[in-house]
Amino acid sequence: MACIASDPVLDIQPDFSSPTFEGLRNCIIGGTQMTHEEVTNKLATAWEQDCNLRVVAWTRQVDKDQCLAAHAAQTEWEQVDQERLCLEQEAEAELCEAEKKKPKINDFKIGAAIGNTLTPHPSQYMIHKLKSFKYIELWYFSPDGCRETANDAKTSADNTFSLTKVEDFVALKPVTSFKASRKAIQDHNLEWCQFDLTKNSFLLYINKLKWPDKHQQALTMFFMNIVSHPSCSEPYRERALLLYAARVHHNWHNTLVLDNAFDISVFNLTLLKNMGKEVWNKVCQETLVEVSLSPFTTQQNHNS
Question: Which domain of life is it from (predicted)?
Answer without folding.
Answer: Eukaryota
